Known about the structure:
There is one protein chain. α12 packs across α13 (306-336). With 344 residues, the chain is α/β, with parallel strands linked by helices. The two termini are 44 Å apart. Helices cover 66% and strands 8% of the residues. The longest helix is centred in the middle third of the chain and has 32 residues, at 135-166. It has helices at 2-14, 16-35, 53-59, 75-83, 107-120, 135-166, 168-174, 179-208, 217-240, 245-262, 274-281, 284-298, 306-336; strands spanning 44-49, 64-70, 89-92, 99-103, 124-128. It contains 13 helices and 5 strands. It folds into 3 domains: 2-35; 44-128, no CATH class; 135-336, no CATH class.
Amino acid sequence: MWAMIVKEFRQVRRDHRTLAMMIVMPVVLLVVFGYAASFDTSEIPAIVGGPGAAAVADRLPDLFDVREVDAGVDRAAGIELLRGGEAVVVILADAGRPVALVDGSQLFSARAAVQAMTAAGNVSMEVLFNPELDTSVVLVPGLAGLILLFIGTVITSLGVVRERQAGTLEQLAVMPLRPRDVFVGKVAPYFLVAAVDLVIVLVVGSLVFDVPFNGSVATLALGSTLFLFVTLGVGVLISGVSENQGQAVQLALMTLLPQVLLSGIIFPLESMATGVRWIGYLLPLTWFNQIARGVMVRGAPFSSLAFPLGILAFSGIVVFGLAVVRFQRDLAASRSVEPVPVDA
């Protein structure tokens, strides 16, 4: 029995991926849930406009982070500022009672703003884009990103590794096909399936959960395509360093879980500690979530989403490019493997 125990410990020690899952992942979860698992918003970006903007800005609670005080901002300009994601609250200080325009697409911050304004009692409120502060309105766009992430990372990595385990990758290597043709042929089905699933999720969300679609279909399609290139690239890279499907699943989960927890889909980025929040800004799902919510809920224009689109484009070029190089190298290695002679 002791020999079996020692043997098992040695086997676990040599399996670096399993060791990382058992040691690194619990530490990551502890840090994430310790610093990120909070629905409390400690800072709400605000813009104060109107003739009495300066006086009203001085009386706001510390919860509101006043980014701009502009006497020339009126209601129309305030709505456009919210639509572009410049702030969560725009307070218009006219001659009468101040009016707070609240961006309902930022669910937790909006709820905190409404609660603070209600407690103050001297400001009337109007919640835009999600007047009922419905959770499903802000969750469905994020779920669309999760679908793309799951198919692009997990399913793609399993499919490519399965080819290697079955020996069909070597068969493809000796066929008169260019490496890029083989690569495109492998990832194209997953790309199409993910696109179909995305449409299904958005249609069901709109019909069943009354999720609005106020923006441009072309902008969301562009963001989804860029994000899918990133996820497909990650899936191919995982398959390249995995010897079997079990290892592929382990690595896929290690890349999937942080994105689910730190992208702002479940826990708001504003409630996270600064260090953890910056980790979230490095994750592609964070930027896709901003694009999807901006387009669907707020009807954000292309110009206000140019930065997250640029981040996804840069990430897609880097990750997908590395995936192509890795796949071509693996394919070349398969071609160089000499067939094993069979005794007569």
